[in-house]
Amino acid sequence: MKKYKKLLAVVACVSLMVSMFAACGENMDPASSTEPSSSTEASAAPSAEASASVSEAPVDRTALKGEITFWHFNKDEGPNIVKSFNAAYPNIKVNISIVPDKDQQYQNKITSAVRAGSGVPDVFPAESAFVKRFVEMPEAYADLTERAKDIIGNMIPYTVAVGTDANARLKALSHQAAAGAVAYKKGAAKQYLGTDDPSAIADMISTPEKMLETARTLKDKSAGKVSLFPTFEEPQKMYIGGRGQGWVVDNKLTIDQKMLDFIDFAKKLRDNKYEAAFDQWSPAWSAAIASDDKALAWACPTWGVPWIVGSNDKNATGGNRWGIVKPPFTYFWGGTWFGIYSKSEKQELAWEFLKYFTADNDAMKKWALENQDFPNNLMVISQGAGEISKIMGVDLFKFYEPFIKDINGNILTKYDDTIENAFVDTMRSYLAGKISTKEDMLKTFKDKVKTNLKDITVE
């Protein structure tokens, strides 16, 4: 999921739909002045109040006064979060500091502050690549279980699962969802598959067997020009989401059967030239998004509509080039969660900040529409976006609604980023013929995990 963040950095939204929530301690960490981060104090003039939380009586937001600290790793999104909050809460001053996460700078700075017990912001975010580290870290995030009990029922279940620790304590909330889908090129589908109808395309990729059959048809009809996927990493996102178990169970590396099946599936794709053999995020992969003669389908989370498709295909906004369908296995890709520092002395003000962006219907819908985001709010989603996507030609809220509750958030672990990087590296070598057998591929993968992670058992 680091690559999710890298893409957004390239397109000026580093984790695209990351979000918004505040931080701890009355003063910023003094060390921040010596690190390559920017620090800004943000407030805005009062405006009309957004509606209150779905579960709480409205409060006089102008009467709430005080000051909190908030760190974020996104220089574009962080200030906008504060501006939006202060439009409703004009008398709560939010001191924001932007700490880029290049080379894990943000993560390390938060970790050091938590361990030292000083200089921690009242509220701080964590993206999907490392959210579980902070959720499980002792004394990092406060327990929100009781405070959030009346609002989590309106959230997409997987987001709650991700923010919950091993002891069933809710530690972090998200304002957004990064549900995954499959984006496809209508022109290529029409020309080589005989239809660009979403229901027909969804059926053509609904099972591994049908994906291989569709890939064969594409290859034959296009004389080898068009592959089903630009890389094996597209269906890998879906297979990962389809697992029944996470990468680490009872502190032991666990390779779910779905991933064993995926190794065979990816080998068939590569051997038959059913995928274009690009690396995800490479220049060739990005260029292929705008081309009509490279590949048909891309893994597309909610943020991927504007930042994968839209940012790479300048002709996509006409609404006629791309379609979007349900994936064969539900998955999520990316996203940001926010929590309150466990020892913050500003718990109530921090909670108002956090709650505003994760439970207020009007605020969440406004943010989602203005930032091309997807709200983690079932009521708002059920009402629809009220507008048609200029890229996909559908109401994206209504499109994702039927399957977002099926996404499994329990499989995410704090080790996933390291393990999945090792898996991708090993798969690339295997598919390139540098590793000769599946057995050797699995051995190499396990050896990488054992080298990189000393605190789990690898057999």
From TrEMBL:
Residues 30-57 have a biased composition (Low complexity). Keywords: Cell membrane, Lipoprotein, Membrane, Palmitate, Signal. InterPro entries: Bact_solute-bd_prot1 (IPR050490), SBP (IPR006059). Residues 29-58 are annotated as: Disordered. Residues 1-22 form the signal peptide. This is Extracellular solute-binding protein family 1. It comes from Pseudobacteroides cellulosolvens ATCC 35603 = DSM 2933.
